[in-house]
Known about the structure:
The complex is a heterodimer.
Chain A: E1 13-15, H1 29-33, H2 37-45, E2 48-51, H3 53-59, H4 70-81, H5 89-92, H6 106-113, E3 116-119, H7 126-130, H8 146-155, E4 160-164, H9 165-175, H10 179-196, H11 213-228, H12 233-243, H13 249-252, H14 275-293, H15 318-325, H16 328-340, H17 345-350, H18 352-367, H19 382-409, H20 416-434
Parallel strand pairs in A: 1-2, 2-4
Antiparallel strand pairs in A: 3-4
Helix pairs in contact in A: 2-10, 4-20, 9-10, 10-11, 11-20, 14-20
Chain B: H1 4-10, E1 41-43, H2 57-61, H3 65-73, E2 76-79, H4 81-87, E3 95-96, H5 98-110, H6 121-125, H7 136-142, E4 151-152, H8 156-163, E5 166-169, H9 175-179, E6 192-193, H10 195-204, E7 209-213, H11 214-223, H12 228-245, H13 262-278, H14 282-293, H15 321-325, H16 336-339, H17 341-345, H18 353-363, H19 379-392, H20 398-414, H21 429-443
Parallel strand pairs in B: 1-2, 1-6, 2-7
Antiparallel strand pairs in B: 3-4, 5-7
Helix pairs in contact in B: 3-12, 5-7, 11-12, 12-13, 13-14, 13-20, 13-21, 19-20
Amino acid sequence: xxxxxxxxxxxxxxxxxxxxxxxxxxxxxxxxxxxxxxxxxxxxxxxxxxxxxxxxxxxxxxxxxxxxxxxxxxxxxxxxxxxxxxxxxxxxxxxxxxxxxxxxxxxxxxxxxxxxxxxxxxxxxxxxxxxxxxxxxxxxxxxxxxxxxxxxxxxxxxxxxxxxxxxxxxxxxxxxxxxxxxxxxxxxxxxxxxxxxxxxxxxxxxxxxxxxxxxxxxxxxxxxxxxxxxxxxxxxxxxxxxxxxxxxxxxxxxxxxxxxxxxxxxxxxxxxxxxxxxxxxxxxxxxxxxxxxxxxxxxxxxxxxxxxxxxxxxxxxxxxxxxxxxxxxxxxxxxxxxxxxxxxxxxxxxxxxxxxxxxxxxxxxxxxxxxxxxxxxxxxxxxxxxxxxxxxxxxxxxxxxxxxxxxxxxxxxxxxxxxxxxxxxxxxxxxxxxxxxxx
Amino acid sequence: xxxxxxxxxxxxxxxxxxxxxxxxxxxxxxxxxxxxxxxxxxxxxxxxxxxxxxxxxxxxxxxxxxxxxxxxxxxxxxxxxxxxxxxxxxxxxxxxxxxxxxxxxxxxxxxxxxxxxxxxxxxxxxxxxxxxxxxxxxxxxxxxxxxxxxxxxxxxxxxxxxxxxxxxxxxxxxxxxxxxxxxxxxxxxxxxxxxxxxxxxxxxxxxxxxxxxxxxxxxxxxxxxxxxxxxxxxxxxxxxxxxxxxxxxxxxxxxxxxxxxxxxxxxxxxxxxxxxxxxxxxxxxxxxxxxxxxxxxxxxxxxxxxxxxxxxxxxxxxxxxxxxxxxxxxxxxxxxxxxxxxxxxxxxxxxxxxxxxxxxxxxxxxxxxxxxxxxxxxxxxxxxxxxxxxxxxxxxxxxxxxxxxxxxxxxxxxxxxxxxxxxxxxxxxxxxxxxxxxxxxxxxx
Lengths: 439, 445
């Protein structure tokens, strides 16, 4: 046996002109081991191009250079509640109507947002090739050099991922964390966009819901959530406390992405809601999400979103203790009646579609770990509870992700029966993440 | 073939072939102290074995319990590409034509939501269908049952380095055809037995055999810049997977072989690739995924194989309170169920197999492969009923999900893979929908 080293990586990675690529290591086992099967399935399909800052600025589409300032998001919820002059998307994201131009605060966030880019329909431009640097030096292990990169950049059809190594390294240096950790986070985030893409790309740019503020919020928080859940322990904390802290509001809202349910789309037969109905549905959804996250349900139960945002304080938490008291079938009956009888009736009607999800969730929370069917036992084993928590959150998130992807696969229709629930979901993401005390 | 299962049981227990059991598919990760399986490897025609090392402990250390059992009972023969070409059955030198399949998937996607239609009556009744309908959603699904037009031999030359690296045969092939293609000087390696021994074994052996084409594996590894040993391991595990999924009265290369219709090929190859992929972790798993990406589209469903179950729902929309009220697929098509799979998966306490079975019986529709509604529930039914809990809980691991799918698939082959009503068994439409799901999630995503 010869001790030949085999350089192949699961993904095809090209250095298109980045000098800082030599500080990054793509051969690390953990980069690939952390990925789940679907994420790796995407990784082997999509070529990655390492670019420098100038190249990234050319590549980044101007219509996507928009961010929401977390300062705007802070009091937007309060302003939106004002019945006389409710705040609009404009107040949250003043640049949303400016067409193709970047947001005013784009320059502030450019460094941290434009570290990576996923492009569904890439069009090769010669400017990018001209801006290439460090063409001559040997590329890092497993990465293909400039000549092959140029060839692939010009001729490879299908989606591309661009990673800006210069920004990754400088952000990591500024924050005092390992550049490879930032690289992994950015790479998983872009792969998350690939997972959310659905079957085909949008032919006309105006069809893409990303260009709407609400669409951008959902898309970015979903992709950020996908990248976030691939880390554990210390790495996850570093990403949340150090890296995510300085990101725009739509990225930060990933911390509540798995806590808020997106209603099944469309909510009704399309094109059937008149103005009044739309207003009613809007305010109903707003009330529902308020109740979901705050203790505002008419029957006095805290919403499931109240499960603590801080990890590791399981038994001290009210929502968990509530489950300990709700033993047996009798507890379920009381709970169910509280929704469908009396004051809660109208709200029960509103959340009828969510009722099954709710029951399934709670039932799973109580019953799942025990082999004996029907017998209700409650565990106090913190390990089991942590496992339940993780499964519960991934449940809600997977429904939201699949609903969002299915919406895009349908061609992102803009009937109010689709858009209103999405807008309210996006608003809830921004509202509740801006108040989260996790950062 | 008619009433195969019932005839078997009339012959008496001694003649009944062994049925697959849930425990046959145990995919527990091996422990270091587990005993090493005895793998018998013979060289029949490989000139150069220097890139390969068959004595690496990792080769067998990666194998889960189920594969270890199979590996120690099946001899492996190393052949050259000329020999492989001779023993590879001509009917299998085809791949699914991606153009046709793509068109067919687009057609399914284009069927409007309102126009779901019903499965053809004769299919539900289990009568043989002479004229396959090609209109409507179900008509499109039935295309997966068609033999002609779907398979292509022109592109074989493009794909054979990624497909003909290994071959599983339930019976040894004609020895003479192999020997006349063997070179003069053959390579040797540690733990590899000679051609003389191989001849003796092949003459006396009656059971299944595995052939690995070393030249092909080496060539593929070179072109992909991968370690040849990694490619070798992947191919070996894939062939062991086929061995695990085969049944005692093998249908291999018979007219009943489901491998020769599109849905069967998709499920079989995806399952075998799942088994191969499951053995690897981390970067190696990524490299294996990359290798699989170079294979034809029937091999791509490996990742989706563990995601969703073969749901034995006969109708698109079952008139059952659960299916109608659960919000995430209300008003959706049957195959959309698979898109919302996590929701079904978590709905354990609400649904039970028995409940659905009773419901179907009440509807007068029997379209379930295993004799669930027969005079006596079979052992398989009891097993699946017993293990249904695994499906219904999110705590079920991917391998538990995959192994139940494998059990369904093997059980279907044990019944002779019927495509029309035979005794109690009616062709399960769910296999078509499941194969379509594997295509969508694998080849087209």
